User: Which sequence fits this backbone?
């Protein structure tokens, strides 16, 4: 079974992270999940679901959940085999930690080791507008091999629901982690 590290941070857009996990699990991928402390609070605020209830709804055989403080977790090591990592949504703060190499929590550390192992690391950044620090950090992230994928859905598929907008971003992000699209949205056709 292929496994993907999923980090959820305290940027707005917890719905992207939740859907990303659900899609991965539905396709039979294993998920190594880390949610930052603020990420849990924003998740509960935006989705109105207790985080622990969400975790208990996930299949135990496919999903491992780690505390962001648990730097002894297997995903702290580059030798732990995963396909890649997605941080969804990714705050400007976590972007800054990742590009500076300051591995304060397990999301930063897992991104750090996946980058050194040259595996896909996709950062679904959610912030607007961008200041110069954000823009410089985006450039640094691209320079060190990460994919910066703004949470910026397209409208050419004429989406009717929030779920369709979310699926666009989740599919684009997972395409870059897995190397293949999951068919969650209709691609561009005339
Ligand atoms: C409701 C709420 C929404 C937020 N939305 C964003 C956001 O969209 N982008 C962002 O960079 N930070 C956002 N923040 C701020 C981050 O949560 C904050 O910078 C935090 O330190 C990020 O830490 P983390 O990356 O470890 O989760 C938001 C905070 C709250 C409480």
Assistant:
């Amino acid at each position: 079974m292929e496994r993907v590290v999923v980090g959820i941070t305290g940027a707005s857009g917890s719905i992207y992270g939740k859907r990303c996990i659900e899609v991965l699990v539905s396709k039979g991928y294993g998920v190594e999940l880390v949610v930052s402390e603020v990420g849990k609070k924003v998740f509960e605020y935006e989705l109105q679901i207790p985080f622990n209830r969400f975790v208990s709804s996930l299949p135990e055989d496919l999903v491992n959940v780690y505390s962001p403080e648990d730097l002894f977790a297997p995903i702290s090591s580059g030798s732990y085999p995963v396909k890649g990592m997605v941080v969804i949504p990714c705050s400007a703060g976590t972007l800054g930690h990742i590009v500076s190499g300051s591995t304060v929590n397990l999301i930063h550390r897992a991104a750090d080791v996946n980058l050194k192992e040259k595996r896909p690391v996709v950062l679904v950044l959610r912030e607007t507008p961008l200041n110069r620090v954000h823009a410089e950090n985006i450039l640094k992230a691209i320079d060190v091999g990460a994919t910066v994928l703004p949470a910026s859905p397209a409208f050419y598929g004429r989406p009717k629901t929030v779920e369709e907008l979310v699926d666009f971003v989740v599919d684009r992000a997972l395409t870059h982690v897995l190397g293949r699209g999951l068919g969650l949205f209709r691609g561009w056709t005339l």
